TrEMBL record:
The active site is at 60 (for ompdecase activity), 62 (for ompdecase activity), 62 (proton donor), 65 (for ompdecase activity). Pathway: Pyrimidine metabolism; UMP biosynthesis via de novo pathway; UMP from orotate: step 2/2. Residues 6-231 form the Orotidine 5'-phosphate decarboxylase domain. The gene is pyrF. HAMAP family: OMPdecase_type1_B. Substrate binds at residues 12, 33, 60-69, 124, 186, 195, 215-216. This is Orotidine 5'-phosphate decarboxylase. One of its GO terms (cellular component) is cytosol. Keywords: Decarboxylase, Lyase, Pyrimidine biosynthesis.
Amino acid sequence: MRAADRVIVPLDVADVEGAIALINRLPQVTFWKVGLELFVSSGPAILRQLKAQDKQIFLDLKFHDIPQTMAGACRAAGRYGVDLVTVHASAGKAALIAAQTAAAAGAAAAGQQTPKLVAVTLLTSIEARSLAFELKVPLELSDYALQMALLAQESGLAGAVCSPQEAAQVRRFCGDDFCLVCPGVRPAGSDRGDQRRTLTPGQAVRAGADYFVIGRPITTAADPAAAFEQICQDIESENIPVRER
Ligand SMILES: O=C(O)c1cc(=O)[nH]c(=O)n1[C@@H]1O[C@H](COP(=O)(O)O)[C@@H](O)[C@H]1O
């Protein structure tokens, strides 16, 4: 897989017009993420636009609910013919299994390929102190993230979303067939913003990430195309081949 196909850029904008402007500005991006802001404001229209342009789509709505509701949402998501869909691992095993089964059924009924369901282990904006003192989780952060990834794997999901800081450990325990999607990737010197557990693109490749979700370092750069290209070169220069998962 080319580096350019592994960098997923989020359409973190307020409306479809803003999204189309960004897509047109970065024709070299092949994988776009549609997240909460755009989907809640504008609905699925952008998915049709992206499909018409043969782009890969990461539908990142981070479902977290009871099994019945997760199943309904994932069945509907499966009908869109998207490539990746997020759920929260902390919804629990029954919800994850229901989500996976329903996504496959929704896709099959609509004649689409089944999306890969990936479970968020622990948001990359959360640091160890918040996990312990706000969320009251009595585990080391890296252990908690690993347990959530293992839960996703046991539930039959294709992969997990984790910080690149936990990617090496998750890869070691979950094996080569498990898909690792890493946000919280920051080229050296770029602003961390609200991200708390970050690594550079090169470090994230070495840790075993398959996909990198990188937004503001590209979209707010003076030259977004150059920023995207530089990140692709950083990934390519590590010379670590990745297989399709
Ligand atoms: O599921 C995600 O994509 C996600 C999970 C997570 O733990 N952290 C995280 O930042 N993300 C998403 O990844 C993107 C990161 O954007 P930047 O911080 O601008 O690079 C955002 O669209 C987030 O919604």
